[in-house]
Amino acid sequence: MSKGDTSLPFDQYQRYRLVADLIERVREGRGPLRILDVGGRTGLLRKFLPRDRVDIVDLEGSELSGLVLGDGSRLPFGAESFDAVVSFDTLEHIPTKRRAAFVEESWRVAKSWVIHAGPYETQRVADAEARLRGFLTEKLELHHRYLEEHHLHGLPKRRDVEAQLGQLGGEVVSVGHANIERWLGLMCLSMYMDRDAPLRGLAAEFHRFYNEALYTHDHDGEVYRHAVVAAFGGARLPDTEGLFSEHSAPANATKPITALAKELMRFDVQRDAITPEWERLHEVNAALADDIGQHAASLSDAREEIQRRKDMTKQLRLDARDLRAELKAIAREAREERKASAKALKAIEQDLGGNVRAREALEGVVSEREAELELVEKELAREQSESAESIAALEADLESHKDVRAQLEELLKLRDAEGEKLALAAQAQGEETEEVVSQLKAELKAHQEASGALESQFHGLNEHIHVLEESLETEREGALETIEALEQDLAAHKDSHAEMSATYTGQVEAVETLETELERERAATAETIEVLEQDLAGHKDSHAELERERTAAAETIEVLEQDLAGHKDSHAEMSATYAGQVEAVETLEAELALALEGARSLEGEIERERKEIDEARDEFEEEISSHREVIAELNSELERVRFVASGLEKQLYEARQEFDCVQGELSADLGTHRETVKELEGLLQEVYRGALDLEAELAREREEVGSMRAEYEQQLSDHRSSLESLEELVSQAQADAGRMHSELEREREEGLEARRALEADLSGHRALVEELQEVSRATEAALKAREEESAKAREDADRIREESAEVVEALQQDLRGHQAVLAERSQELEAVRDALGGLEGEHEVALRAAQEKATAEQQRLLEDLDVHREVMADLRSELEKNVSAREGVEVDLRRVEEMAQKIEGELRGTQDALLDSVQARAGVEAELQVLSDELGGERETLAFMRKEMGSRWKNLVRAFLGTRRKY
């Protein structure tokens, strides 16, 4: 048998060692068992049962291998998956409502054994935990999560767990361990040592000492922890004989613990005295640390300043060294420059001497050059005089050339003016001709466009008539189908209206039925409430009677205590009497024997009376404790009855609210249905009004068709007048064309005459050009003769030659331009003649064709236009009427369908609400029946308890009175 890890805290070691020993006692030579530890995420059971397979399930995770996250009240395993299911100090951490499910789940997945170890509810256990919580809070200033959960959820009741396991078919035994007073003291020591780090090593030794030396002896008296063991399926319960040592703890076993407790108390006293000093020391150390930090910072700043100054001094020294080197270099350069300057001065002085000599030589050369210059100037003056004479002669020649050029320019201006006049006349004539031609073309184009427009209108009218006929046929068919659909929809709406009326009547009847049932339900509920109030009053009377009985019992206890005090006083008086009798015996030997016998008999009677009083007192205390338990149970039952009554009142209030909601919804639905019916009637009236509006609109359309027909007739008369004006324009255009033809012939003759005059002028210009060319050649010969004499004369001659060439080129360009203009004018005249001839033929043909076509089209349009207007007006009116009617009907149908769907949805919601209310009513009735049955059983129980209390009280009073009589 493994003792497990003895270094564990004693409280953990207790629970795991106890369960491990019990499992070893039921093993019966089996191999490794499969065990489920519910809530054991630490995995400590594996250290105590190393041969077995221990699976773990817990709500909280850990790094332990094989841990499954799950809820103990809903285990994620199949039935009978484990040989044993165990839990350690777990039930008290589960809310009370889920404990039964936790125990049942452990039974479901277990094959043979279920063990739930932990503290169970007793007054001593609750007091011990409360004192431990107070110690942790007040002394150690700690908040223990698990002890708080014990207090929050309450400790489980061992008899409830045993009863549930027994009802599930198990054989049950409970095994207790850990004396409660010893557990409380050891827990205080353990938590105290665990708080201070220096004491934790001592705590480990303390735990090891208990686990090895005291565990097997710690089972006497009332215990803190029980292991509830249940065996299923023929498995046997553990044999508890020899599980613990037969004797209590050895005499000297607790001395180390006592000594440790004393030392810890002295340590605690010293620590309480030292703690303020220690805190002050910490404060002083903190202040010193702050000062040291500040000094360190100041020292660091000073060191940084010193280092900065050192760096600055070093840099200054380096700068001074560099400056010295620079000064030396500058001084060296100055010395070298001074030497170089001295050398340069010597060289300059030498150059100056050479320059003086050169100057003297240059002055001689200058004098010679000046003499040569005077000769050149005299030659230049002579050449200038000669050049002036040559220039004067050339200027005279130039003046004569200028006169000739002026005459030529005047002739050219005259020619240009005549040419411009001819050009303007030709241009004006051409523009007039172009305008006439463009007007004729525009008129012809307008006639063609009018003819094309009339043809396109005619074709368009035919196509439009065809389309209108097809659309009219389609609309007629659609209108017939729409009318049929409307008639069917109207019939369906009538049926729906009838069904809705029937449904409304049924709903009204159902509402009346529900109101009747509600009244009956209210009456029954009121009766039930009265019964419950009467029962509550009876419970209050019973509670008052119990209070009175408890008061009477307290008074009886006080009387008994007074009687006991009287007995004590009597005993004292008897003792005094006995002393007097002893003294009297010394004097009266005769009376001694009687006095001694009387005293012995009196002492025997007193002893018997005392025993009887003690027995009566014990019985009375037992009766009082039983009465207290009964009162507590009655109080709990009363609280439960009050809770049930409050639940019933709440359910009744909720049922009333639900009924009010259902009634409100039904009334709202009825109002909605009524509004819907009104809306449907309004829609039908709107449909009828729409039909009347359609008829009025049809009349208006007919009037508009008549007005359109009048407009078309007016347009036709306008077209006739426009055709007559076009015929007048055509005749006028023919006369204008003849007149323009004669004018063009006259202008052609004038153009030929101008051409002949221009050709004569051109021949004259050519002679002038030849003469100018001869003059230019003579000029060029003279210039060539004088070119050798002066460069300036050559330049003037070249300029004159270039100007003459430009004049000649300009004249030639003007001549070529006049020739091109004449050629273009002749071509344009030929083109105009051709165009006029073609236009006259085409215009006549087009006019005849247009007149014939216009006449035919006019006649045909006059015949068909009236018919088409009437048909189109009728079709348009019918089409628009049908379209508007169809759109209105479609809108109305959609609205009616939406309203019908809405009504159907509301009806379905109403039906669902009615079903829910019926189901809720059935549930309330069932709950009321269950509550009435429970109240009936509770009445019987209370009556039985009242009867039992009455009989017990009578027996108690009888025993007390008999005791007083005996006394």
Structure description:
With 967 residues, this protein is mostly helical. It has a domain of 225 residues: 3-Layer(aba) Sandwich (Rossmann fold), CATH 3.40.50.150. 84% of the residues lie in helices and 5% in strands. It has eleven helices and seven strands. It is flat, with a radius of gyration of 71 Å.
Note the main attributes of this structure.
Rossmann fold, mainly alpha, seven-stranded mixed sheet, 967 residues
- Secondary structural class: mainly alpha
> Would you count the extended β strands for me?
7
- Give the radius of gyration: 71 Å
- SS strand fraction: 5-15%
* CATH level-3 fold name of the domain at 10-234: Rossmann fold
CATH architecture of the domain at 10-234: 3-Layer(aba) Sandwich
Q: Calculate the mean pLDDT score and round it.
A: 71
Oligomeric status of the shown chains?
single chain
Number of helices: 11
The termini sit apart by: 62 Å
Order of strands side by side in the largest beta sheet? 3-2-1-4-5-7-6
- What would CATH call the homologous superfamily of the domain at 10-234? Vaccinia Virus protein VP39
> What profile does the largest beta sheet have?
7 strands, mixed
Helix content: over 70%
Order of helices and strands: HEHEEEHEHHHEHHEHHH
